[in-house]
Each structure stands twice: as C-alpha cells, then as structure tokens.
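[INFO] parsing input record for YaaH family protein
[DEBUG] input buffer:
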Amino acid sequence: MGNTKLANPAPLGLMGFGMTTILLNLHNTGIFPFDVNILAMGIFYGGIAQIFAGLLEFKKGNTFGLTAFVSYGSFWLTLVAILIMPKMGLADAANAHFLGAYLGLWGVFTLFMFFGTLASAPRMLQFVFGSLTVLFALLAIGHLVDNESIVRVAGWIGLVCGASAIYLAMGEVLNEQFGRTVLPIGEKH
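[DEBUG] output buffer:
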C-alpha cells in the first residue's frame, strides 16, 4: 500500500504567517520603511503558502487549521490588494478609519480562533493567537483614532507574535525530525 502518513502542513502555514508578520511589523515599529519586501512576502508566503497549508489541513480533517490558514492567507492577499490597488489606479487609497474597521473585524475573528485554541492546542499556539488578538486590537484602535504611537506599540507586539509563530513552526518540525522534544511548545492539554 505504501506510506499513508500525511505530513504536518502547520509549520508551513506558521512560517508563512510568522515571517510575513515580522516584516510588516518591522515597518509598524518604525524600524524600516514600507517597501516591496512586505508586499512580495504578503502575496507569496503569507498569502499563497498559508492557503496551501490550509488546504492540506483540510486533507487531514483539521477544520481549525483549514479555517486559520486559509483565512490568514487571504488576509495577507487582501491587505496587499488594499495597498497596491490604489497605486495601480484601480481604487482610491483606503480610508484610515475604514482600515481600522477592517483590522477590527480581523481582531474579532482572531479572538474567536483564540478561544478555539483553548480546547486542546499547544500553549505556544494559544500564545500566537492571544498575541495576534492584541495586535489586531491595537492596530484597529491606532487607525480608528489616528494615533501612530499605538500603531508603533502594535508593531512590537507583532514582532513577538511573528517570532512565536516561527518558534512554534520550528518546534513542530524539529520535534518530529528528532522524535523528541527539541523545542518545547507546551504539551496539548
């Protein structure tokens, strides 16, 4: 029959999310200006790779993974579209307050996904979703009240969130490769 074990697609999705989140939030903190690095990463790794990971979670029967990765992959693609469509002459630039509402909706979605991690997910995944909820809340508030300082604080939270997703991804890969805990991710409870 051959090998019927399916690979774990979560590390791919987590890396796409984590690395792209770090790049965007290096900009939000004010460390780097916004440029093509963020757009390219948002399309191909944060966007497309996460959607692939989500579709592979479907094959494994993981509704949470499917919903998370396809949704956040789509988040990155829509965010890139919001940013580049005006530059292409296809739409007016986003209204900052409406962008706050957009980010707020993603925060609500993320809060519900965070609650989903409480059932049986590793502690590190709970941390990723908890910090992402805070990130979206701060970004939404920062845009709604036109406060760049709040966006900068959100950027630092985003760096921590992205780094935690990368850590979790590498924990899952290395722990599986070595057949033991190399990077602790918090046992499922």
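[INFO] The chain has a mean pLDDT of 95.
[INFO] shutting down worker
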